[in-house]
């Protein structure tokens, strides 16, 4: 299964892009390409290359020297390549047409889009399978973050079931699971107090770990690299390469680097690459931009429920040593959310006097005035100023912030998992076990706050397992290909057996048993009705019922007009000690996007007036409240400056922390989230 590519050396492209996206800092997970062999017959002929991608232990300066050397060598050997030809249309800006740009094409066996737990688990499993059977396979992981883990956000409490299967000796290999869970509690909050809630013993977190998922993901990347997986941070999957009949996938195109806001090439312009793959696995996380395109174009959600989401808003604090209880896990329900808003909070004591805390709000809430960020931040009578949180945080320091959308739809919202040439894994498909937080929720907890924790715990092990299942079926399919298989002309590789493998797995069993819990909250009694049913289903019926509840609509359809029995919520100003303004918190994410690039939060110019009119008149500017990074503002404007109804929409895309909430919740469904230049976005490390 040796892979080949043509046009220009991949080394040159990697070197240029690394130099472009690395910025002032460099990634510990960056891979240094070392040319094993370079040969060519002519500049225009297809050329076979063999590369070795190994993790380097040298300093950045040595790495950059090697990259520069590789780029120089490539330029000498391929001085008449298509890269030179690309300069022709670029010189004439008026005539520049991005669709005519010739791109580097690289052939691989498996291309995995997304370097999170699911994608890396799939990559590791594939390489282990290949080594066990003495076969050669090329696996590439594309990651839009500046480094592996930079876009990973989680609570997190992790169950090690999938990790035990994937890497049985993870303890000996130094996996960053250092703080075992030591205690569990569940409380119902009132504005000024709380009371304990029952905690079934079968929901115990015994054996689980309080971790930083960002750190664990970086460690998984190290294991993958050692097995020979090629990982490219800063390479975002921007477009899908479809088969000629449009019914399958044959790879992806990475994003272009060096375009200005008007899509004109700047001096450092570098076209995105084409990765042609026998199998493409999408592991982008919840509401991934390419996953969304695949699902819609290939109608993978036919006869399935719509996906529903929550928004998790998180902080990490360093607290006083005398207040720290390593391994303590606490969840709450009730206040500050009302009875019609599904959600809950968590508080996890990590290692090194750190705590993880936050709130998850179901995005099917009806009240357009709710702001998940301010539910966490606002002073006086909001979450962090509640005695349970305020007493613990007093004298501490907030050291990290982040937010991310998460899947809540469950089993009935999982789309078809495979298609000709690829599959969906992890949260791209939606394997989150919302109510089962491995001991992190009780009767009610499965109801509201359940998924707050679930996002941060039970989602990881199911995502990893899905990647492993897809990898197993992918390897079987690749092994069955004839030696003369020609990817450019042959039929797409079929991994439809992945569907059956999932149905036979413990992941499907878990999700089927709890399938009715989240949708049970769609009832006239709101959260209380959901709590009562969830207690009956989970503790007595054990999920073994002949009926299945359904999600009636998408989250944006649940939003009601502001004029319908709603009034603006008075969120007091933050005090700067326990609670903070939104821009201060965004600064704690490390978010950065290159200046003068195309806005990745796309709203057609022709739709601006209708967007502003509808969102102001009906929903009083909902996007300005639901976004946890102050990306959207509806500002007063006059005359030509106004888009409509005396307002102008300003999109501060440089603030975007890639949570995807805007494209999920906006009632007009006219915001398209596209990938920005590779390496843009947050730089999470403790989350």
UniProtKB/TrEMBL annotation:
The record ties this protein, via Gene3D superfamilies, to: 3.30.70.20, 3.30.9.90, FAD/NAD(P)-binding domain
Reaction it catalyzes: a ubiquinone + reduced [electron-transfer flavoprotein] = a ubiquinol + oxidized [electron-transfer flavoprotein] + H(+)
Pfam family of the protein (one):
ETFQO_UQ-bd
Task: State its cofactor.
Answer: [4Fe-4S] cluster; FAD
Q: Which UniProt keywords apply?
A: Electron transport, FAD, Flavoprotein, Iron, Iron-sulfur, Membrane, Metal-binding, Mitochondrion, Mitochondrion inner membrane, Oxidoreductase, Transit peptide, Transport, Ubiquinone
Residue intervals of the 4Fe-4S ferredoxin-type domain:
647-676
Question: Could you give the cofactor binding note from the entry?
Answer: Binds 1 [4Fe-4S] cluster.
- Cellular component per GO? mitochondrial inner membrane
E.C. number(s) listed in UniProt: 1.5.5.1
Q: Does the keyword Iron-sulfur apply?
A: yes
Location(s) in or outside the cell: Mitochondrion inner membrane
Q: What is its main location?
A: mitochondrion
- Known role: Accepts electrons from ETF and reduces ubiquinone.
- What is the similarity comment for this entry? Belongs to the ETF-QO/FixC family.
The protein's name in its UniProt record: Electron transfer flavoprotein-ubiquinone oxidoreductase
